[in-house]
Amino acid sequence: MTVVNIQADTKLHLESPFLPAPAEIVRKDRLNDTETLYQLRLADGTELGQLPGQFVEVSVFGIGEAPFSVSSSPTRGDAFELCIRRVGDVTSALERLALGEHIGIRGPLGRGFPLEQMRGRNVLIIAGGLGIVPLRSLITNILDEREDFSNVTILYGCKTPKELLFRDELNRWQAREDIDFRITTDIAEPGWKGNVGPVTTLFRRLAVDPRNTVPVMVGPPVMFKHVVKQVLACGIPEDRIILSLERRMKCGIGECGHCQINGIYVCQDGPVFTYAELKRLEEAML
Amino acid sequence: MVDRVMTKSALAESLEQLAATLHVAAPVEEGGRVMFRRVRYAAELANHYLPTMLPPTKYARPPHEELLRFSWAEGPRVEPVFEAEEIVIFGVRPCDMHAFDLLDQIFSEENSDGHYQARREALTLIGMECLEPCDEHSFCRSMGSLEATGGFDLLLSEMGDGYYVRVGTAKGRALIGTFQDAREAVYEDRKRLRKTCLRRESQFEHRLEDTYDELPRVLADSEDSLLWDVLGEKCLSCGACTNVCPTCFCFDVHDDVNLDLKSGRRRRHWDSCQLEEFAMVGTGESFRQPRNLRVKHRFNHKGRYLMERYGVPGCVGCGRCARDCLVGISPIEVFNQLKGQPVER
After folding, report:
1. Is A16's CB within 8 Å of B67's CB?
2. I need a labelling partner for A219 at 20 to 30 A (CA). Which of A3, A242, B9, B251 fits?
3. What is the average pLDDT across B9-36?
4. pTM (2 decimals)?
5. Cβ contact B115–A18 (<8 Å)
6. For testing contact with chain B, the best of A255, A265, A277 (most B CBs within 10 A)
7. How much is the pLDDT for A205?
8. Pair B159, B193: CB distance under 8 Å
9. What is the ipTM of this complex?
């Protein structure tokens, strides 16, 4: 068989959508039993240029590639951050890498949060569990440009207090006068003085102006069901409710089919959607 | 571009000359099945054949394909791999040419997938018109793919002891230029071709109650059909249907490490939405776990989603999935039953 590397003798300009850019691990912070925050810098010195809500494909060469949402805000300089839970081969291999070692990055990919449409409005952010990871990018961006937004409310729910991520930041957010930040956990632990119950219980004493509020939510499928109901009950129109979905975004370019929800590709058409876009899609599980 | 006419023996001779120096792939019978294989002699070719076991699109989208090579011996190094072999595929049926068109749209127009483009560019397609229907499983006429509307470099139509040859591209023109005894077609030849095509029309039935442009609506109206549960109980989730389908293009990507443990390659492999792990995420949640939903997804992808996204049907009516289904699930029956025939458990 005469297999040729065609690049040398073709007029075609060939590009590989699978070619990652090397990035150096510049910082690693263990946040929890299973979550680590990685700070990365692209080896060519450029900024990632992500929008809050976008994701990247991370390569550990020899192990594989997996998608992760970017957890840092574009307002914070040339390094970017990924908060990753150790669950499989790629994430375990990542944890074993040392500072100064390189991984591969493709992206930023997908459609991020509609930040521009949120400016001048009230923002209601609802995070469930790992949903705080992509939302941290949005929250940091909003806080860095606080004057561009009207009231900012953040509701964050976890299973147990020890699963809360970014504790230093949570404390700083709690101390701020210019935002309303509330935390809850499903199960209390000794010493926990905060609210107990699902994230919907935080809505009780909340005044939401339906004319001017953009709700943004990221969490597990079960959270979406209840929270969507709650914000709809506040009178917010379906096309202003923003959600970000988790699926298996293997290729990130709308080819491989793994992230498909009915006819749409989460990696390209999302991961951020409006509720109006998703409500008729059975596989969105809303 | 001027059409040509060749005798069968002249074509056989030209093919053999071509095969002496180039990879010529053509339908060959082997173990009771017909498949595309490299040929050297015209005598190897299967004369009358059903759609081949695997579609010829496998030459543009092989089951396993290298995407990247990498090493980390002296810092990370990664480079893309664009592999292609020049192959002339002889005897591509119109249904499969329509499949090539769809894949071109996905991998070349919507995306700039150099791995696909390299292989596709190295292919020369010599099409062969179908003058009579192949078997009860095909429904190309209903899917609008009986006629070859493009995608071919050369297109052959059998006429008596010869072929009428249409030239589709500059590549095809260059190729026919190397064929001996290919005379220019004249008015009489064209008249004969028209007659042949007219005769053909009446032989192919519309096997679907709807034409393909109505399928998206039929499928959208069938979200809650009982038929999905019936099919879910019947289907074995073996993935044969997606493996033999000319328009299936889903894949998975894996890394292989070389024996030196310092280098490796990243490859993509055919994958199937019919397998349970297909829509599973890292935390173990599977978003399309029940079998009935997986079957439903396949038929919707073929009859509805691709149409909505790209404006062309995702199924070309070749019937391969029905021919190779172990439990006899047939798209003709499924689409027609959704249209309104009663579904019994």
Report:
1. yes
2. B251
3. 94
4. 0.91
5. yes
6. A255
7. 82
8. yes
9. 0.88
User: Where exactly are the structural domains of chain B?
Assistant: 4-203, 212-339
Task: List phi, psi (to 5°) of B266.
Answer: -110, 130
Which residue intervals of A100-162 are DSSP H helices? 115-118, 132-144
Q: Give pLDDT, residue B75.
A: 77
With CB atoms and an 8 Å threshold, state whether A247 touches B254. no
**d(CA B108, nearest CA chain A) in Å:** 10
Supply the pLDDT for residue B341. Answer: 57
Mean pLDDT over the full length of chain B: 92
CB contact, 8 Å: B202 with chain A? Answer: no
Residue ranges of domains in chain A, CATH in brackets: 21-109 (2.40.30.10), 115-284 (3.40.50.80)
**pLDDT-based confidence at residue B50 (cuts at 50, 70, 90):** confident
Q: Angle, nearest 10°, between helix axes B227-234 and B291-300?
A: 110
Asked whether B269 and B80 are in contact (CB, 8 A), the reply is no
DSSP summary character for residue A147:
G
pLDDT < 70 regions, chain A: 1-12
Write out B70-121 in H/E/C secondary structure. EECECECEEEECCEECCEEEEEECHHHHHHHHHHHHHHHHHCCCHHHHHHHH
Which residue's entry shows tokens 């689409």?
B335
